Amino acid sequence: MEAVVFVFSLIDCCALIFLSVYFIITLSDLECDYINARSCCSKLNKWVVPELIGHTIVTVLMLISLHWFIFLLNLPVATWNIYRMILALIND
């Protein structure tokens, strides 16, 4: 069980790093005026919920598997993403 949790966590973290790089490249294109703000937002907004799900799944898996230190490292990021999503839902 422990090996499966860490393999899934590794795959998920790699996907989240790839997603962060994609965000940076897209925002760089916006800064250089290669794309307009509307298309930038439409490209990035569809990846916000998968990012939230990815962070939350890893955090919950570390809590369930009793890896407290890794859970505590992931908790602020997951909390921030949930807070961001709640604010977005309230403002809409």
TrEMBL record:
Pfam families, sorted: Cornichon
This protein's UniProt keywords: Membrane, Transmembrane, Transmembrane helix
Listed GO biological process terms: vesicle-mediated transport
Membrane topology label: Multi-pass membrane protein
GO cellular-component term (any): membrane
UniProt cross-references to InterPro entries, sorted A to Z: Cornichon
Superkingdom, natural source: Eukaryota
TM stretches of this protein: 5-25, 52-75
Localization terms from the record: Membrane
PANTHER family: CORNICHON-RELATED
Family membership: Belongs to the cornichon family.
Name of the protein described by the UniProt record: Cornichon family AMPA receptor auxiliary protein 4
Organism from which the protein derives: Monodelphis domestica (Gray short-tailed opossum)
